Amino acid sequence: MSNTYDKHGDIAENDEATMVLLVLYWKSSQLGCVYYLHQFRELYFIMDVKNMDLKDIVLELLHQIQPTHVILCKSNELELTAIIKNYDPDIKIESTNAKSFTYQKGRQELINWYIEITPNTSTASTSLQQQQHYPTAASAHSSLGGQSTPMHPQDRLRNGSPSPSSSSSSLSSLPPSYQHHRYISDDNITKQALFNLSSMVPMDSFTTITCLAPLFDAFKEGLFGPEMIGIKPMTLQTISLPDTMHVPIDVIRSLEIFQPRLHPSTHQKKGKEITSLYHLLNYTVSPGGTHLLKQWILRPSLNLTIINERQKSVAIFTAMDQRKGSFIKKLASYLKHVKNMARILGRIYEHRAKVSEWHQLLQFIYYVIKIDNLLRLLTTPVDSPIVEKFMNLVDVELLTRIGKYINDNITFEESQLEGRLTIKKGIDRDLDLLRSKYEALDNYLLQVAHEISAPLPVDIGHLLNVVYFPQLGYLLTLPSTAHDYFAQNAFLYDGCTLQFTTQENCYYKIDRMRDMDEEIGDLHGMIIDKQIELIQEISEQILQHRQLILTTTQTLAEMDCMAAIHNHYIRPQMTDDDDQHELTIIQGRHPLQELVMDTFIANDTFLASGMTLATTQSAQSPSHFVPPKPRYPTPSASSSDRLGLLRHTDAKNILLLTGANYSGKSIYLKQIGLIVYMAHLGSFVPAERAVISVVDKLFTSIQTAEMPGKGVGASFGSWCASLGGIPGEVLERATTLYQQLSQEMPYEEPTLTQQEARRYEDLDGLLARFLNLQDFDNDEDAGELQSIIDSVASLF
Length: 796
Known about the structure:
Blueprint: H1 13-16, E1 20-27, E2 30-37, E3 42-50, H2 54-65, E4 69-73, H3 77-87, E5 92-96, H4 103-117, H5 121-127, H6 137-145, H7 153-158, H8 186-198, H9 206-210, H10 212-221, E6 235-239, H11 249-254, H12 277-281, H13 287-298, H14 304-324, H15 327-335, H16 341-349, H17 355-376, H18 385-393, H19 396-409, H20 412-418, H21 429-439, H22 441-453, H23 458-461, E7 465-469, E8 473-479, H24 483-488, E9 497-501, E10 505-509, H25 511-519, H26 523-543, H27 546-564, E11 573-575, E12 581-588, H28 593-596, E13 603-609, H29 665-679, E14 689-693, E15 698-700, H30 712-721, H31 727-730, E16 735-737, H32 754-771, H33 779-795
Parallel strand pairs: 1-4, 3-6, 4-5, 11-14, 15-16
Antiparallel strand pairs: 1-2, 2-3, 7-8, 8-10, 9-10, 12-13, 12-14
Family: Belongs to the DNA mismatch repair MutS family.
Pfam families: MutS_III, MutS_V
Keywords: ATP-binding, DNA-binding, Nucleotide-binding
């Protein structure tokens, strides 16, 4: 994919959104993986993946990451290239020698990056705090609370403290900025960096750390374009795949987790249709929130603490909205001004930030203060993990100081006119002196022109003028029509030479102009150079507080997700008992299907493993499912508040669903899968009540993805082949959704050969054996299941 560039040679932002660099390294049955997301300047570190099928894990990573460029080691290039090209032939692949993939080099590159990107925190914490004119936290909060009408970010930050003197806000009043680890030896710096990194990255993930070296080499060498030279990630994220649900690509497609939105028909007065779970939940308003929600949906969590914290925050936000009426709406109106701060800080670090991006940074601080004010105005204490996290991690006082520091030094009105950042007057004495000279330059040049024209005849003297051009200096100018006449009098001026001509004027250099070049200098260039120097100091001051800004952005992204996924569903009860697994859904509904149906009939679901269910349900259709009167209470029949299944020795953990075509079997199975999936995101679910055990793997064969034209053998064969990887997983906590076999058959069966007929006879017998299985926790039934699967695999 080709990149586009703006007029400054920077890569366009829409291309930044798609640029993802991935490094893969396969060695000794271990896969190492790191990737860099350029839009958010994020470096992702995926812990070593061990003892998994290479093709399956690579395809899963490709689907989650969606890379545009991949770096491979030449030692396993062929195998990985085949997998990648089969997935997406447009992905650009670069191969690197094996000597680049070394643990020591990758470890050192990581340490060097951390040292370079992390300023001396002791200097950073005092540089802005030593400005005495900034308000305290209490005064900042009280002043915000007293505002009845919103103010412009610049005005709000300007009025947030007593008016400082012109000298107190100048750059010269600050301590030396960005003296990186000034009093620490290089050896101690490395040890400290390694100590800090050990809490962020598992240093025993040797294969993944090995992948870091070629990635940083690509940044240094501009392997994927000159715009990538010198790029530095702003944040480091660690992902542990064992802590996330294993969801194959076919499950993502079958359950419609991600689907393109359908545009409205010109014949129907409807907006875009919600066609996926992502579109159903995605009401985020900030770039970081949208990005984070997608990560949540791609990698459902298995951490019960994280799931419960998300559920609790969603419940609190929903309750706030019900009490306040417009809490979520007001919060969203503030969050939409929180832009991609990682990208903006990266642009500042690369000296490429535009005026609009600096202004977005100032707006970000302003709306963080507004959000803090909104949360503090709550009349009752809020026991919400995300609110507590915001209060504990976000230093609003320091952010206020940073915002005021930016506003006191940069004039955005003039910056917009100039097209570059402009420093305010009164900040730097030398800059002010240069500006005063530049402002008086017109009068001075007019005086010089009068002095120079004195020896000339009056009819030509009044046409002479002296002008100043940046970089060209001072020039004597006359109309082109007077050139010949002036040439006859050029002897009056020492060193007179014609520099260039235009259609209307001629421009000359004389010794007087050269003296002015030496004495006065290129004022415009000097002003710009001085401002660049001061902006560099401002940038370094801001970057010292990079971690605070990024932490605040990440917290607000989580808050955006919580506010977005709040809905009118119910909070499921999540359990994590290794001995007793439960899936109980009372009056569950399909979250997507009910949006397009006038009437949707809800259905119950009862499945258990390691516990008992009094009866085994079998029905002709889920839409008309009426369970028989149970001998033992079911969750819907029990009067107890405790939701769950009663233990009994006759428990079954398989639900067999049969019914006619178009009776709703697929919808029912997808409904179960989506409810389980949503519960692991921390979202509420469409049901009256639900108890869901943590599920580490989710499989489905609801919908095949074969190419058109394939016959019954291919369709049925792929269904059977999909069973091959499941038996070992079923014995754990995997939830498997399988559609009735006849759903995979076309309505008109083709004529079968004698060999195919025997094959289907054998499959019919295997299916009968499969349906006779009782309990996968039983060793005998588990062995029988494995035997059935092996037999199916041998037939294809």
